[in-house]
Every structure is written in C-alpha cells, then in structure tokens.
C-alpha cells in the first residue's frame, strides 16, 4: 500500500530543488500531495498540475490569517489522514506542524533551511524555532552547520536529526546560447563590458555583498570595462548597498530583481562571487553548487555546505571573511591564470556532481519516510 505523504511549503513560487524531488521520488511508494501556503497560479503550482500532483492552496497574508490558516491546514490533514507530513520553511513550520500534531499525524518531518539567522538577528524568533523542533518528530539538517546549531544552540537530541543535503539534477546545468542571449537582452547587460562579475544573493548584511562591491570598485582600476551583475537584488540591506553601488561609474553594474533562468544567468558571468560574512551565515548555500555546476570560476568564503567540500585553488578561490582586497585579488587571479581557472572549474564540477546528485538525496529521503512509517512515535 502506498504511504500518504504530504509536503507543506510556505511562500514558494518557484523551486527547482523541490521539482527535482517530485520528478525523482518513487511514486509507486507514495501517494504524494502538497499544501501550499501563499499564492495560487504560480510557476510551482503549474508544475504540480503538469506532474498530476494534487495540491491545496491556503492563503496567508499576515498575522490576521494565522488562525484561519491553521484551521484550514488542520481540516485538510484530518480529511487526507497522511502517514507523513514533510514541512519546509519557517511559516509552514510554525503553523502546519502544530496543525499536523492536532490532526493526529504521527510522523512530522521538518527540513531546517536556515542556521543561526534567528540567533544572530531575531533572537525572539528562537522561541518559535524551539516550538517547531518540539512539534517535529524528525528534523532534517541540510548541512553540518545546521546540525551544529540544532544540537549546540537549541539542544535538540542528535538522534532526532537526519542529515540530508540538497540534491541537484545536473542535467539541468547546460549552456544554451539562445537562452543566455535572451537573458542578457532582457536585463540590458552590455555586450562590450568585460569581465562580468556575478552575484546571486538577497540584499542582506550577512551575504557580504558590501565587500564584493568594494572589491569590484578596486577591480575596475585594472579592468575599466568590468561589469557587475547583482541578481535577487532586494532585501533589508538595500539602502546601504545602493549607496555603495551608486558610487560606481554609471553603467558599470546591473541589478536584477529576479531571474527564473538561473543557468543562463550564471553562464553570463566570467567570475562568480559569494562571500557570506561568517561560517554559519549559510545553512546550505545552493548558489555554491549551482555556480560550480555551471563551471563558472568562483570566489567564495566558507559558509554552510561550502565548509564541507570547497578548497582554495582546488575547486574555487577561497578568501577570508570581510576582506574586499582579498576578493579583488582572487578575481584577478582567476582572470589572469588560465591554468588555475581551468583546474578549479573542472574540479568544482566534479566535486558537486559526486556529492549532490539526486539519487543520493532521494535515497536518504526514502529512508526517512520509510523509517517514519514504521516507527512508533
């Protein structure tokens, strides 16, 4: 008999990683459905329709919707009676996990997609994290960093945690010239300005974009035609970053609010930079894997999953935290040293394809779902 498995997500409009899970999960074992907190008619719900995966959409626009959302999810779960719920993201965790408990769902899995963010920036939210931990029967840590936070800072029993890093369908990461040119034209990225330095990151303090902008300003002294592209260009640090950007020469940078075709965007970059400011800023850091999968020479600080496999001059250039001068030097190193550039791109691709393929992730998820179905919790 198939196990009834319900995924519950909050505020997801597009997610390649979850789409890849849907495509690779053995549907002969699972009767899969989704509850989406947020909007309907998104790229993700359209994908669910294409895959014939049933789903419910529960609107949530703020605190006033908390109790109605809780009740709607509770009623859905009482009706469907799943064996396992797998909850992703904070708002889904704080609302759907207690609802699942009250609905009598005995096996409640929560994937933790952030590490120390609440401890460092929103300490009051740590109480809510502890509530999520309490109502979960199994916590999925996507990296060693997340597991360390759960155990050492939130005192979760290690036996309650399963480590499952994100998986990637590496057949997606190919260069298609027509897509690349379409994205370039769409965002007005000039053809005559090189090298192109790329950033794909929300505008928050912890991502270290401020140091990348300073490094880029220094880089232009050597490469006056260099161009900076910043995607996902919104967030609570936008005012500070905008002031730094507007100190650059006009036309030397492009901001992109969102680009769905990430592989084409990466392919436009001569060098990619991702430099979070501390080891535990990133819970995982999907962009580390994506950049290396697209064979883009990269400059990194070590945070999240990068701490587990990235090595300086082996598969990327690694720089200290908070160090614009080191970032600028590393970019120039990759631009000028052909041997280094070819080595890190080849070995970077090899590293991520060996570690983060979908079969490994699906095997671990399947083990977690089957163990939950058998356990008496």
From TrEMBL:
A molecular function (GO) term: glycosyltransferase activity
Q: Which residues span the membrane?
A: 84-103
Q: Which domain of life is it from?
A: Bacteria
Keywords per UniProt = Membrane, Transmembrane, Transmembrane helix
Taken from the record, one Pfam family name reads Glyco_transf_4
Taking every annotated instance into account, which residue ranges of this chain make up the domain Glycosyltransferase subfamily 4-like N-terminal?
A: 23-170
The UniProt entry, under SUPFAM superfamilies, shows:
UDP-Glycosyltransferase/glycogen phosphorylase
Tell me where in this chain the Glycosyl transferase family domain is found.
186-350
Q: Which PANTHER family match?
A: SULFOQUINOVOSYL TRANSFERASE SQD2
Name this protein carries in UniProt: Glycosyltransferase family 4 protein
The organism of origin for this protein: Dawidia cretensis
């Amino acid at each position: 008999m198939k196990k009834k498995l319900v995924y519950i997500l909050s505020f997801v409009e597009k997610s390649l990683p979850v789409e890849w899970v849907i495509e690779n999960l053995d549907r002969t074992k699972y009767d899969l459905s989704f509850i989406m907190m947020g909007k309907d008619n998104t790229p993700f719900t359209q994908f669910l329709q294409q895959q014939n995966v049933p789903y419910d959409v529960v609107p949530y626009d703020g605190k006033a919707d908390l109790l109605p959302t809780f009740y709607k999810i509770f009623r859905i779960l009482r009706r469907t009676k799943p064996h396992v719920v797998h909850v992703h993201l904070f708002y889904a965790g704080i609302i759907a996990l207690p609802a699942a408990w009250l609905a009598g769902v005995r096996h409640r899995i929560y994937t933790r997609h952030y590490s120390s963010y609440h401890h460092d920036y929103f300490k009051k939210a740590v109480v809510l994290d502890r509530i999520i931990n309490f109502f979960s029967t199994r916590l999925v840590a996507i990296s060693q960093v997340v597991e360390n936070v759960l155990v050492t800072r939130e005192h979760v029993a290690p036996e309650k945690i399963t480590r499952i890093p994100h998986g990637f369908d590496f057949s997606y990461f190919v260069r298609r010239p027509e897509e690349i040119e379409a994205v370039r034209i769409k965002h007005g990225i000039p053809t005559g300005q090189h090298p192109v330095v790329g950033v794909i990151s929300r505008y928050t303090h912890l991502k270290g974009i401020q140091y990348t902008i300073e490094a880029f300003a220094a880089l232009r002294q050597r490469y006056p035609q260099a161009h900076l592209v910043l995607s996902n260009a919104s967030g609570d640090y936008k005012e500070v970053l905008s002031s730094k950007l507007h100190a650059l020469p006009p036309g030397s940078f492009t901001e992109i609010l969102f680009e769905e075709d990430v592989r084409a965007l990466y392919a436009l970059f001569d060098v990619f930079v991702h430099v979070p400011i501390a080891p535990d800023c990133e819970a995982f850091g999907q962009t580390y894997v994506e950049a290396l999968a697209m064979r883009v020479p990269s400059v990194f600080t070590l945070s999240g999953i990068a701490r587990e496999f990235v090595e300086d001059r082996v598969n990327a250039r690694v720089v200290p935290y908070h160090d614009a001068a080191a970032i600028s030097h590393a970019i120039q190193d990759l631009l000028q040293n052909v041997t280094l550039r070819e080595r890190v791109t080849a070995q970077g691709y090899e590293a991520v394809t060996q570690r983060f393929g979908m079969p490994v992730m699906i095997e671990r998820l399947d083990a977690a779902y089957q163990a939950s179905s058998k356990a008496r919790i």
